[in-house]
Amino acid sequence: MAKTNKKNKAWMIAMGVIVIAVLYFKFSGGPHQPLSPHYDIEKSGSGTVVDFTGSTNKIHQTVDEALKKTGLSVRDTKEATKEVPRQKVEGTIRWHVRQLLVNFPGDLSIETVEQALQSGVKKSGGQLISSQPDNYQGLSVIRIDIGLKDKVAGDDIMIVSDQVYLVKEKAPGVVTSKSIAGHGQMAIVIDDFGYSKEPIDAYVEIARPLTFSILPYRPYSNEAAARGLSSGHQIMLHLPMEPLAQAEQSEKLTITVKMSDSQIQEMTKKALQTIPGIIGVNNHQGSRATADKRVMKVVLGELKVNNLFFLDSRTNSQSIGADTARQFGVRTGENQLFIDNSDDVNAIKAQLRTAQNMAFKHGNVIVIGHARMNTAKAVREMISELEENGIQLVFVSQMVK
């Protein structure tokens, strides 16, 4: 009888555990239930559309509320729906994006606005991605990027939904650190991000203004963009364009002179949408394409629509990229020196000293290096020397006109 009672007691305990477990799963959804995603799924004949429009519209609303609460007024708004192809499967990613030009009184700090936006957009699942100097239709501004991060089929996705451009009204007679001129300014652009991870790690550790130029459709393109922005650097699209020697063409998806206007426009549009948070574009290779006026007109037309500047990499002395950009009213600048045609650290340092002398002579200089470990080492080790000699490192967006 004792054995029977023990068996009955054990059975009752087991049943109790099962009942508790059933109730837990029923009312809690289970311990491994995933969090609700920020997107909707839409099936179509051309694949699956991952639609973030609903989430980005919610972020727009909280951005507006945060700006109103801080007492800021929106001076101009541009908005559009973006749709980009998914890289590993058939289908697209869709979202809504806005650019807001906002009047910013001189008695309010940037930090106060950032905190208000960060606190506000959290309610809608958004976050403040980056804050950096920029240029908006000739105005010097602080640009704050806001959006969200998610995973789609295991891939990390970053969506920029709102770009807030703050135009600060300075009090008369106030001298800021930016108005104190040194011996010269230097903008360093680093091309070819996207091929590998190691250079990303090296450059994000450099605590000075650098501009990352990122290739589209590469394995580490999104990581370079996300980490570049989060570490305080600016990012551009490194747009593949046709070189003079076809054998040197390194990217499968490259704008060529044989393409029609509509093909060039479509390829440019898609490439622009692959890298979130870009402020401008420079050409990857392109010694043939940048010398072709028809090609450049089409490319620059897309840049103008998206309020992006064009930096001519000057891979060909016959390039008409910058001249055409000026004719189109697109802000532009030109590379004046490649600093790492040699991968030797000392040779790269020598080129940076040459760039320093150019800045002394002309007041400023734009140079291009590449996402390589020795270039990162040379730049990092030269910073103190450059600054001691009166060189101020700035973003390339501060030099384009």
CATH superfamily of the largest domain: Glycoside hydrolase/deacetylase
Tell me the quaternary state. Answer: single chain
Structural class computed from helices and strand pairing: alpha/beta
Number of helices: 10
Number of strands: 16
Residue stretches low in confidence (pLDDT < 50, at least 5 long) are 21-35, 170-182
**Looking at CATH, which topology of the largest domain would you report?**
TIM Barrel
Domain unit count: 2
The CATH architecture assignment of the largest domain turns out to be Alpha-Beta Barrel
Strand and helix order:
HEEHEEHEEEEHEHEHEHEHEEHEHE
Question: Roughly how much helix do the residues carry, as a percent range?
Answer: 25-40%
Return the average pLDDT rounded to an integer: 85
User: Mind summarizing the main beta sheet?
Assistant: 9 strands, parallel
Characteristics of this structure?
alpha/beta, Beta Polymerase, domain 2, TIM Barrel, 2 domains, seven-stranded mixed sheet, 31% strand
Task: Map the helices and strands.
Blueprint (H helix, E strand, L loop, with lengths): L1 H27 L11 E5 L2 E5 L1 H18 L2 E13 L5 E14 L5 H12 L5 E10 L2 E14 L2 E14 L15 E10 L4 H7 L6 E4 L6 H10 L3 E8 L19 H14 L5 E6 L7 H13 L3 E4 L8 H8 L3 E3 L2 E2 L6 H18 L1 E7 L2 H16 L2 E4 L7
Parallel strand pairs: 2-4, 4-7, 8-9, 8-15, 8-16, 9-10, 10-11, 11-12, 12-13, 14-15
Antiparallel strand pairs: 1-2, 3-4, 5-6, 6-7
Helix pairs in contact: 2-3, 6-7, 7-8, 9-10
